[in-house]
Amino acid sequence: MLPFPQFPLTIFYDGACRVCAAEMSIYRIRNRASRLVFVDISDPGFGPERNGISLDDFMAQMHVIDHDGAIYRGVEGFWAIWQAFPGSTWYGLLGRLVMLPGVNFLARAGYGIFARYRRYLPHRHTCADGTCRLD
């Protein structure tokens, strides 16, 4: 059983990944209680060493670190994020479902496949100083 996350949660995600960035934008909109802090690990200024986790590990799967330092990775990271929205019936249902043994196994397998191959998905455009490039 996972410990209940202590807020705020810091979500480390790959902002260059279109799917990842789209998911985080949904959470940003719903983050009215400021329970979530977003860190884009694709930002050149990101320093993984201050968290004791390598950049390769951060890139391998989403990480969520709670206020007390508990680390949630992958599917468990999503579970922790969904706890930030206690009034949401949808996220509550997802949170309960994803922790059921059979569903958790399938969710981990599905997420593992996505995480392994997401680097081959189209990336977001990065714009700075009035110029844009495709990453």
Could you please describe the fold and organization of this structure?
The chain has 135 residues and is an alpha+beta fold. It has one domain. 40% of the residues lie in helices and 18% in strands. The chain contains five helices and six strands; from the N terminus they run βαβαββαααββ. Strands 2-1-3-4 form a four-stranded mixed sheet, with helices on one face. A two-stranded antiparallel ribbon has the order 5-6. A hairpin with a 2-residue loop joins strand 5 and strand 6 (131-134). The longest helix is centred in the last third of the chain and has 17 residues, at 101-117. The termini are far apart. Mean pLDDT is 91; it is low at 130-135.
Spatial strand arrangement across the major sheet: 2-1-3-4
- Binned, the helix content reads 40-55%
Please report the total strand number as a whole number.
6
Shape: globular
Structural class: alpha+beta
Average of pLDDT: 91
Ranges where pLDDT stays below 50 over 5 or more residues in a row are: 130-135
Beta strand %: 15-25%
What is the domain total for the residues? Answer: 1
SSE diagram, text form:
Blueprint: E1 9-13, H1 18-30, E2 36-40, H2 55-60, E3 63-65, E4 71-73, H3 75-82, H4 89-98, H5 101-117, E5 125-128, E6 131-134
Parallel strand pairs: 1-2
Antiparallel strand pairs: 1-3, 3-4, 5-6
Helix pairs in contact: 3-4
Summary of the model, kept short:
The protein is α+β, with helices and mostly antiparallel strands.
